[in-house]
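Re: beginner question about structure tokens

> Can someone show what the tokenized structure looks like for a real chain? I only ever see the sequence side.

Sure, here's an example I had lying around. Input first:
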Amino acid sequence: MDFSNLLQTVLIYALPVLFAITVHEAAHGYAARHFGDNTASMLGRITLNPFKHIDPVGTILMPLLLYFATSGAFLFGYAKPVPVNFHHLRNPKRDMIWVALAGPASNFLQAILWAVVLVALVGLQIDERFFIEMARAGILVNLVMWAFNLFPLPPLDGGRILVGLLPWRQAQMVSRIEPYGFFIVLALVVAGVVGTVWLRPLMSLGYSAISLLISPLSALLR
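And the corresponding structure tokens:
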């Protein structure tokens, strides 16, 4: 493993990753508070301080180990989840959808902002490779988080959205998966199912949508 390449990759991805996980988790907390649950607020988790959301194992150790073990071919990690007591929400079943959706929505918005930065850098002919690669990394990281977290299996955000949308009986059946959901999702990721069936199609759709949204800016800067 080339240490200089590793260091460069870490520096390029550090800021986009920190913003991606911090804003994602804070968005859950803000949405929960808006709909009546102050749990995250009382625990000091509604903050843009990244250290409040970093999980030493899931955010740092696991991605680094996987990077070395697979030569960068496979990465997986997670942040410290913002605590939400869904029973405190004014309308738990309905509001659960909005609280869960807030995280992925914040990542999609960040992907758009990084795309604007990239288009601006290229349009203004600022050819500093480090910043160009960081903007590209920002788009990639946030689209991965957006798509992955929408996977419809609890405890991922997509699973909670699904529980909120389903009728009570079906919702209860899906919610029972949650204690084992992380291990099921991890197994599906390792097997390549999540990447092939879910991530690639959804990310392709995301890239197309962002390209369409920023096309006026691209045309303006040409």
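Each token stands for a local structural state, so reading them left to right follows the chain. The chain has one domain: 3-221.
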